[in-house]
Amino acid sequence: MKIWHPFTQEKTANAPIKIVKGEGEYLFDERGKKYLDMISSWWTNLFGHSNGEIAEAIYQQARKLEHVIFAQFTHDPAEQLCQELYGFLPKDLEYFFFSDDGSTAVEVAIKMAYQYFYNRGFRKNTYINLAGGYHGDTLGAMGAAGNQSDYHSTFSEFFFETFSIDFPQSLQDEDIAIEKLQIFLKQSGENICALILEPLVQGAAGMKIYRAAFLDKIVKEVRKYEVIIIFDEVMTGFYRTGTMFAMDQCSERPDIICLSKGITGGFLPLALTVVNRKIYDAFLSEDWKKAFIHGHSYTANPLSCVAAIKTMEILKREEIQRNIKAIAQIHEVALKEMESIFHRRHLGTIAAFEVESPRKAKEVAQGMFQSGIIIRPIGKNIYLIPPYCTTAKNLEYVYKMFRAYLI
Ligand SMILES: Cc1ncc(COP(=O)(O)O)c(C=O)c1O
């Protein structure tokens, strides 16, 4: 018997480290060594590990109702969560569809966009994305990210038609990218089903940050045609970029938003695809086939929902909001002081920079690990996305160790 781990080359990877306990920003291995989790365990644990209040909410709910089929039935935790989230979202995003993780939130969005047109008698099967974006590992989510993804080219034979907007490195690049988009739209605008992108930060591309004004320009161009706009805020949501959603820093709004990861504070899987009335109404019919025939066994699991309700409550607290700002400030100052790094960037609680090669990034990560700090470079990009409970002292220690290993 052997466990096959995700995103792992099993032939060459070191044996996984057994973690036995988590507490705040710390993880503890079986030998009692403690580590600072500076990637919030794949960007999920907003308040660090084993938050007592979320654990208690789950426990209380588990004694009342642990799960119920979500077709034909509903429950208070799901309804309360949507009500709570609705308070944070633009008022026209008001129809909430549950699923289990970031990939399914995206899968749902791209299927809804396609069926939105299909139900009205149109066939549109081309998606626009921002080059290098990542939207998950299911077939549809991989397909939407397109051929330019570094992760999924093995499966490119299965992908649908996409057009990738160039990712800009400069203002001039932005103009060129928009011009190319305009040309494409002129030629193929009628076949475009949806635009999908990660607003402001492309996570799995290596925490690549771009300007809100560029996003707004893209959306304005695409909106000249009948195209559904999907914002994948699976990673950027819940104050990762300094605001509740990255889109809060932009002028343009989507028709569909995808949420997951931090939504339960890192306790349980849960996702939401939230849409506006235009989308919802296109599925209303006497014909069952026009319904959205999609669902997962654990859809809207009540334990996940109460974890998410508690997460929203904690997020609103002054102390957390203060910490989010403090983390952002430390990133800004510390990045400036670092030498031997390239392309330094930060937004909210996310900080990233490049080193000369992927090999150097690996060496730095190994050194940091010896010093009890968990990071996971992507190629030559090194990034931090710490939990919001991370103290200034700990974050400054992390930067001090970076300076030591970057020499
Ligand atoms: C922007 C974005 N979308 C979708 C996903 C997929 O989420 P999951 O891993 O929960 O399926 C990820 C995961 O990293 C992501 O960063």
Shape summary: globular
Number of distinct beta strands: 16
Listed once per kind, the bound small molecules are: pyridoxal-5'-phosphate
The fraction of residues in strands falls at: 15-25%
Major sheet description: 7 strands, mixed
Task: Name the CATH homologous superfamily of the largest domain.
Answer: Type I PLP-dependent aspartate aminotransferase-like (Major domain)
Structural class assignment = alpha/beta
* Alpha-carbon Rg, integer: 21 Å
Number of helices: 12
Mean pLDDT: 97
Strand arrangement across the biggest beta sheet: 4-12-11-10-7-5-6
Low-confidence stretches: none
> Could you spell the SSE succession in H and E letters?
EEEHHHEHEHEHEEEHEEEHHHEEHEEH
CATH topology description of the largest domain: Aspartate Aminotransferase, domain 2
List the helices and strands and how they pair.
Layout: E1 19-23, E2 26-29, E3 34-37, H1 40-43, H2 52-62, H3 76-86, E4 95-99, H4 102-118, E5 126-130, H5 139-145, E6 161-165, H6 171-188, E7 192-197, E8 201-202, E9 208-209, H7 212-222, E10 228-232, E11 256-259, E12 271-275, H8 277-281, H9 302-315, H10 318-337, E13 342-347, E14 350-354, H11 358-370, E15 373-374, E16 381-384, H12 392-405
Parallel strand pairs: 3-15, 5-6, 5-7, 7-10, 10-11
Antiparallel strand pairs: 1-2, 2-3, 4-12, 8-9, 11-12, 13-14, 14-16
Helix pairs in contact: 2-9, 3-9, 4-5, 6-7, 10-12, 11-12
The structure holds pyridoxal-5'-phosphate (PLP).
Pyridoxal-5'-phosphate binds next to helix 4.
